[in-house]
Structure formats: C-alpha cells, structure tokens
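Question thread 4412

I'm putting together a teaching handout and wanted feedback from people who do this every day. The idea is simple: show students a protein as raw sequence, then show them the structure tokens that encode its fold, then repeat with a second protein so they can compare. Below is the first pair exactly as I plan to print it.
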Amino acid sequence: MADVVDNAENSVTTEQTLESVIDAFNPISNKLNWLLVALPLAVMFNFQHNLTMAFLFSMIAIMPLAFLMGKGTEEIALRTGEAIGGFLNATFGNAAELIIVGLAIYAASNDPEIVDTMVTVTQASLIGSILGNMLLVLGLAMLWGGLKHKEQTFNSDAIQMNGTLLLLAVVAFIIPSALQYSGGTFSDVENISHYASIVLLIIYGFALLFQLKTHSHVFATEPGHGHHEHPTMTNQNAWILLILATVLVAWMAHILVHSLEAAVVEWGMPELFIGVILLPFFGNAAEHFTAVIVAGKDKMDLSVAIAVGSSVQIALFAAPAMVLFAWALGVPLTLEFGMLETAATFVSVLVVNSILADGKSNWLEGGMLLGSYIILALAFLQL
C-alpha cells in the first residue's frame, strides 16, 4: 500500500503540486482563509507606522496561517501514525508561539526600555499556551467530540505519562517562586531557573526517546479508535504548505512583536491579559482547529496528544529553551512566572489529570475545562 502511495506521489507534476498548495489558501474551500486579508493590512499599517492596527491585524493573520500549518501537519500525520502525528502537530502548532516569544526576547536584548514589557509578555505567553492547550483546546475538543459521540475513549497510559511530565514542570515553576518569596535574591532565582531549565530539557529529551523509540507501543492507537482516512495531499505538498505557512507566521510575528508595546499603551489593556489570553489564543490556532476537528471524527488519541502534548512541549521544552536563550542574550527571563500564573498552572494540571485518568471523555467534561479557562481569563483581566 505504501508503495502505491509513493508511486502516485512521484507521478504528480510540479504544476499539480503548486495548484494543490495554492488551493489550500483558497477562501472558497475554507472560509477561515478570508482572514488572510489581514496579512497585507498588517504589512500596510506597519509600513505606515500605525502600530496599534498593525498589532491587531498581524494577530488576526496568524490564526488562518496557523490553521494552514495544522493542515499540513495533519496530512503528514496520516502517514506517520497518531503518536508521531500528535508530536508533529504539537511541535508545528507551537511554532507560532515560539517565534513570537523568541522575537520578543531578541527585541528586549536590543532595547533596554522594553525589557520589562517583553519579559512580562513572554512569561505570560508561555503560561497562557500551557493553560490554553490544557483547558481551552482540550475543552473544545471534548465538547465537540462529545456532542457528536456519546462517549469517547483514548489511551490513558500515554496520558498519565504526559500528566506526570506536566507536574514535573510545575515543580520547576514553583521552586523559583518559593525561593523568591522566601527571601532569595533575583540572582538566586536566575541561577535556579537556569539549572532547572537544563534539567527540564534533558527530561524532555528522555521523554521523546521513551515515546518514539523504547516504549512506542504504549502510545500506539488502540484498534477501533476513529476512522481511517486517506491523505488528500501528497507528502511533498504538505511539507511545502507547512514551510510556507511557517515563514508567513514568522513575518506576522515580527510585526506583532514590533507593535506590541504601542498596543499595550494605547489600549490600556493589562500586559498579562495580552500575554496569557490573546497571544496564545491566536498563536495556538493550529491546535484549536486540528484538535477539535479530529475529535469530531472520534480520533481522541490524536486530539488529546495534540492538546496535552503541546502543553508538555511548552512546559518542558519551549519555556526552558527561552530562559536559556534569554540568558545567552543577557535578558533577565526566569521560571518565576508569578504567584497567580504558577497557581493557575498547578490547579489546571490537577484538573486535567483528574478528568483524563479514566481514559474516557464526554461533552460535560469538556464544558468543565472551558469553565475553568473562563474563570482564569477573568482573573487575568482584573490585573
């Protein structure tokens, strides 16, 4: 069967490949693509130095571009299986977020006047991604999947490992905060953050080895989960779409970071709310759409792998990697995210682990996760 697919893909002409990729951007085939009109508007307003409007439209443009990244990774995932597919979706779904926070740290290293704002937004964005994926994305997926199917099942063994990894990450977040509130200096907090980040990255590497190599059978999809689908794009098309969408996301992220300070001042909106709610919501749109769509198809293993796997990746890879990146550039970014942010993450991990423990889901559990997310969003809006 694989040989047939490979032969079919080899026979595709360059013209057909280009047509397939261009069609992915067609607003007629996908209504969300109408939001791509925000891309040239963001460029125009940025050129005119209207930074507030540039921030707004660049943030909007990231949503359909993130969806296209999700489409490319979903097509690739159909050829790799749901364990690796979920990892790919989580990785490229987080690409927009990593680009945004990476550019924010770089901008802070070049302009001392915006260091405080960029550090706050970066920390808030990382926590917001973890919370958004665990509560919003997984909640929407369970709600939508539960409305279409009375009860859905997934591999609870794989989820328990991811849940344990999230608890480990929370420990790494709590210790710097506890050290600071116990009278430790900022230098002490920086040091423990750097060492903890190195440990988290090592643990994440071991987790990947465990998941993809030594114990891959634990993460294999159980028979009868979901419906078998055939790719609608060739592997080459999917990778071209993925790379093109990623480049455009990076462009929009550059404009967004450049205009963020102006938006904070003019809108008078709390930096924490922008970082925890707005940026992750638009930046993680790929996970939003992909996880919800596959949940509706009764492919909860893939849906949960995307949502929870993405949170694990942010907590054990993105956050420590950004701390070390900032350390190299001389930017004072630590794992001390603040009392509310750390408490919200800890409680969210406990709630998600409790809901996923039985390996089953329904629409009510999805509603509970969404309710938790709304409460947290209102709390951050008050700051």
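The second pair follows. I'd like the answer to focus on this one:
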Amino acid sequence: MTTPTVPVIAPAAVPVIVIGSVNVDLVAVGGRMPRPGETVSMERFAEVQGGKGGNQASAAAALGAHVHFVGAVGSDHWGTAARDDLSARGIDVSGLATVEGATGVAIILVDDSGENSIAIVPGANAAVSPAAVEAALAAIEAEDAVVVACLEIPLESVQAAARAAERRGWRFVLNPAPAPSGGLPAELVAAASVITPNETEVEVLGGVSVLLVAGAGAVVVTRGGDGTDLHLRGTEVARLDASRASVVDTTGAGDAFTAALAVGLANGRELVDAVRWASAAGAIATEGFGARGSLATAAQVEERLTQN
C-alpha cells in the first residue's frame, strides 16, 4: 500500500471538522453482482481504508483543507492502520478514539460498470458517543468551521454534533447515509445548512419538500451521471450537469462530493459554486479503485471544471 502524500495546497479559510465512521473496506471487483442465493466469481480483491467519515476527511484534506476528524477505531491492527493513514494525510486525529474491540468493516462488491453494493459492520463506530463528540468539538479552537457528519455512527451523536455546531455558529453539512427508514429528527434537519442525499436516500427520508419544510437550509441531491439538483426554499430547483468521468469504481464518490462541498463553503464559495466544485471532485473520485483511490486536489478540480 502506498503512503498518501500530504497536500501542499494552501488550507481552506476555515477548518473542516468531520465526524463519522472509519472502516476497513474489503472489496471484491468484477463481473456482476450476485442475485439472492447465488455465488459468483469476482476478478480481484483488495483491503483498503474506508468508512464514510474517513473518506470525507481524506477527500477534504486532499483538497487542501485543515481537517479535524472525530470518530473511533478498534484496538486491532486495522484500527492502527486507519489512524496512521488519516494522520499521514495531514488530518488532525486528536479526536479519534481507540476503543476495545474491532474496527468497523465494510464488505463491498463492485461490478464491471463500476457500480457497487456495500454491507457495513459498525464495530468501533458504534462507540462514538454524544459525550465524546461534544468533548472533541469543545477542544477545537476555531471562530468558524464547517462541520460534516454522516449516519454511520449513532444518530444521537450526530445530533450532538449538530447542536454543538449550532451553538458556535458553525455551518453543519449532513450526509444522511445510510438513510434511516423512519426519517430524520426534525431538530437535526433544522440544524443542517446543507443536506446531501443521493436519489435513493432522499426518497427514504420522505422527499426534498419534507426536508425543506423541516428547516434544512438547502438539499443537494446527487444523481450520479445524471448530475446534481440544488433545492432551496422558495426557489426553483437548480439542475447541474455531471462532470465528465472515466468511471472505474463509484465507491466513495458521494463522500468526495460532500467533502468538496464543505471545503468549498469553508473557502467562501457561494452554494451553487460549491456544488459545481463538489460535482467535479466526485467525478474524479470515480476514476480510481477504492474510496480513496482517486481523491482530487483543488488544482485537479479546477482543471476538470474547464473541461465540462
């Protein structure tokens, strides 16, 4: 495994704080997905770093942001490897706890078209408590920040992060994945500056209008190769085309998108510009193997935007 290089691009105007999961990804690639009860032969296997939180932190760091990560890994060798990987990317891991037991695991199948199917075993991610989140955020000295959270950690801990961000006047970006079938608590939705579901997740959550009525600042629906829809209360939907990509593996593309959106906001971009920037970063993320196999730099994003 190659050691990631720390980006040399100037950091974002304000820090990006990612609160979320860390997993080891066990990835099988090739052919097609098995149907229920069926066994299929895949072409290759790899063990790579993953977890939505870890992916988002890594993508933000690659784009030049100053990143803090809050989460938990297990006391196994996978936990040590995950911590070392994040640290090597220049990410502040002082908020990353080590708990007794196993690190989270994701089992991922990727077919020949680059589409994926993922099963998660939470492991240490389930131990990320509200108290731990509140303590980690309280230790960060920043007048302004953009906080990013996903739902691969306990929901009450995500709510604690949202409340802490709200108290300090920090923007809060929620990636509602995996989407809970019962929907999201209204207070969590109302605390979100931006919510970034994909097409499936937004349906599970009851639709865009439900989220906007509940108080979300904006809803950005990612639709893969069909582009991105930006929804704001009282305005018509803004439909943005997808950036060009030579797709190898879509794993982690949504994480790269959410991270780039947060970095764009941290750098002072207007929301529609940040969404366009994030779309390019997400496209680049599909062009390598694994969730962190093709993380974009800011320069690469700018270049891709000139090609669209």
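Top answer:
Good format. For the second protein you could add a caption like this: Residues 74 and 213 are 39 Å apart (CA to CA). The radius of gyration is 18 Å.
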